[in-house]
Amino acid sequence: MPRRTKKEAEQTRQLLLETALTLFAEKGIAGTSLKDIASAAGLTHGALYWHFKNRTDLVDALYDECRFPLEDLFLDQLQSARQDALESLGDFIIQWSQRALTETRPASIWKVFHQGVAHTPELEAIASKIRDEHREWLHLLSKLIKKARKQKRIAHKPSTNIDPVPAAVLGVIMGIIASVYNTGSGLVHAKQQTKFLSQHFIQGLKL
Questions:
Q1: pLDDT tens, 154-165?
Q2: Which InterPro entries does the record cross-reference, listed alphabetically (predicted)?
Q3: pLDDT tens-digit map of 86-125
Q4: Which one of 29, 49, 163, 181 has the largest count of C-beta atoms within 10 Å of its C-beta?
């Protein structure tokens, strides 16, 4: 049997990671065995162990490969924020929520790593990485909120503390997504609910 090239080995590794992401999103990490992943990928159990020592090792590698994609959304809204940062913040909330609900791969990433499901030993092992990612999200939100305050679109009295606002916005986003998943709302309802809740939250920040 010919020896695999580095390219072929990497393709196999990526296949295992993408298969794991799909199965974890459908069945949860605890409900998915390494045998399930290898079988769904059309590979042997041994092929999987050649790339990953155990399920914790696989989940760690998967997380490093599958950060929730926000950079493009944020850069778009940062550009728009030159005109109205508060409106851009509202659009960011809507687009972020809808990406986690309606786009296949981002939705899978959200379900596996950010949906607040019961923690497993594998997730506990990468908890610090997930917290770091959430801090990065708060930093992005803070940029838009500070710009909105500078534009006097939200409360701007010196005595007003806006430090808790990014965490409140993140809580709204996570709450919207969790609500739709937990109620089994359809796509149309999910979009309507996302827009409705975002608009009301932004309205509460206005002067």
A1: 866 666 677 888
A2: Homeodomain-like_sf (IPR009057), HTH-type_TetR-like_transc_reg (IPR050109), HTH_TetR (IPR001647)
A3: 999 999 999 999 899 889 999 999 999 998 655 788 888 8
A4: 29
Helical axes 165-183 vs 127-150, angle rounded to 10°: 120
* Residue from 70, 66, 71 nearest 112 by CA: 66
pTM of the predicted model, to two decimals? 0.86
Number of domains in the chain: 2
Query: Of 15, 42, 65, which one is at a domain's C-terminal end?
Result: 65
Let me know: does 99 contact 36? Beta carbons within 8 Å.
no
Task: Verify that 12 and 95 share a domain, yes or no.
Answer: no
Identify any residues that bridge with 206 across adjacent strands, giving them in sequence order. Answer: 154
pLDDT over threshold 70, residue 3? no
> What is the domain range of residue 20?
6-65
Give the pLDDT confidence of 32-83 residue by residue, as tens digits: 999 999 999 999 999 999 999 999 999 999 999 989 999 889 998 988 888 8
Last residue of a domain, one of 65, 85, 105: 65
